[in-house]
């Protein structure tokens, strides 16, 4: 028996674009009550209206995942609006790839703050509530770059390896409290993720083009939904989804 996610309360970070936005639309179609978070409030508002127009339920809260207080306030908003939190999708992320000798140390800091600390603050914001209810599902978005390290990917991959390590540790400590933890590791998806790259050598590499068709946000939304909908006794530890043509 698949789990019916109709009525489940799910927080999605990074919902203003790409994978998070696609996940919001799919989960709303399935009847989930969504709490949408990102920094760009105008985009969240637009998405909320679109979801409501299609008959779904969503609220939004402008949130910077690098702020502990804002993440805590996000979880509190979910409880005050809908009474509970059934799921958290820790999806917000940045990918300013660069060669290490360019010393883009501010960008290293940003990736650590958003991709690692943001995930930790998300976990901290919902874990007490989920443990108390003995119910919940935390989905952390890692990457193929959390399995292998390409040129220019040293720090980004470091953050995504960390997301997998944190998720596995969380799983082992909470599975017996009826909390499920899932890692989703996408390959190349067509989103705005590469917009933050400032290293011209990496931009050139990207512009030379990849000889395969990228995934769409909805392809990863399907993986998120698959994990959420499994029967209660089934835990999906990790899903790796790559473009069929990506080596
Ligand atoms: P996008 O750039 O399209 O989306 C990133 C999202 O993260 C935006 O909604 C952005 O919202 C949000 N975000 C960034 N910084 C913050 C912050 N400080 N606080 C709150 N939200 C923030 O990229 P994707 O959809 O591709 O990325 C989603 C996740 O998927 C990331 O974790 C990424 O690493 C991962 N991933 C993506 C792959 C790809 O090929 N695209 C492959 C593998 C993994 P805003 O700017 O409004 O705050």
Bound molecules: NADPH dihydro-nicotinamide-adenine-dinucleotide phosphate
C-alpha geometry: globular
Strand content: 15-25%
CATH fourth-tier homologous superfamily: NAD(P)-binding Rossmann-like Domain
Which residues sit in consecutive blocks of at least 5 with pLDDT less than 50? Answer: none
Structural class, judged by helices and strands?
Answer: alpha/beta
Distance between the termini: 35 Å
| Name given to the CATH architecture | 3-Layer(aba) Sandwich
CATH topology grouping:
Rossmann fold
What's the level 1 CATH class?
Answer: Alpha Beta
Total count of helical runs of at least 4 residues: 7
GO molecular function, one term: oxidoreductase activity
Keywords: Oxidoreductase
Protein name: SDR family oxidoreductase
Domain Ketoreductase: 8-192
Element layout with pairings:
Blueprint: E1 9-13, H1 18-29, E2 33-38, H2 41-53, E3 57-62, H3 68-82, E4 87-90, H4 105-133, E5 136-141, H5 154-174, E6 179-186, H6 200-207, H7 217-229, E7 238-241
Parallel strand pairs: 1-2, 1-4, 2-3, 4-5, 5-6, 6-7
Helix pairs in contact: 1-7, 3-4, 4-5
NADPH dihydro-nicotinamide-adenine-dinucleotide phosphate is lined by residues 13-14, 16-20, 38-40, 43, 63-66, 91-95, 114, 141, 143, 186, 188-189, 191-193.
Organism: Scopulibacillus cellulosilyticus
Keywords: Oxidoreductase
Pfam families: adh_short (PF00106)
Structural features, described:
- By secondary structure, the chain is of the alpha/beta class.
- Helix content is 45%, strand content 16%.
- It has one domain (9-241): Rossmann fold (3-Layer(aba) Sandwich).
- It is built from seven helices and seven strands, in the order βαβαβαβαβαβααβ.
- The protein has a seven-stranded parallel beta sheet with strand order 3-2-1-4-5-6-7, sandwiched between helices.
- Helix 4 links the parallel strand 4 and strand 5 (136-141).
- Helix 1 (18-29) packs across helix 7 and helix 3 (68-82) packs parallel to helix 4.
- The radius of gyration is 17 Å and the shape is globular.
- The model has no long low-confidence stretch (mean pLDDT 97).
- It comes from Scopulibacillus cellulosilyticus.
């Amino acid at each position: 028996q698949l789990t019916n996610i109709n009525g489940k309360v799910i927080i999605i970070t990074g919902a203003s674009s790409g994978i998070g936005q696609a996940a919001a639309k799919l989960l709303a179609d399935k009847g989930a009550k969504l709490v949408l978070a990102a920094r760009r409030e105008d985009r969240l508002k637009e998405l909320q209206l679109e979801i409501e127009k299609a008959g779904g339920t969503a609220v939004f809260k402008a949130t910077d995942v690098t702020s502990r207080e804002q993440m805590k306030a996000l979880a509190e908003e979910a409880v005050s609006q809908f009474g509970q939190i059934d799921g958290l999708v820790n999806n917000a992320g940045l990918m300013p790839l660069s060669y290490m000798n360019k010393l883009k140390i501010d960008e290293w800091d940003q990736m650590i703050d958003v991709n690692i600390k943001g995930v930790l603050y998300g976990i901290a914001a919902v874990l007490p509530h989920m443990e108390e209810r003995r119910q919940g599902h935390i989905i952390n978005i890692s990457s193929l770059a959390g399995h292998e390290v390409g040129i220019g990917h040293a720090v980004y991959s470091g953050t995504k390896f960390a997301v997998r390590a944190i998720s596995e540790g969380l799983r082992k400590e909470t599975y017996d409290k009826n909390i499920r933890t899932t890692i989703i590791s996408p390959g190349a998806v067509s989103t705005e993720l590469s917009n933050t790259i400032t290293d011209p050598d990496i931009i050139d590499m990207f512009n030379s083009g990849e000889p395969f068709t990228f995934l769409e946000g909805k392809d990863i939304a399907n993986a998120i939904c698959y994990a959420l909908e499994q029967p209660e006794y089934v835990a999906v530890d990790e899903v790796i989804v790559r473009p069929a043509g990506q080596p």
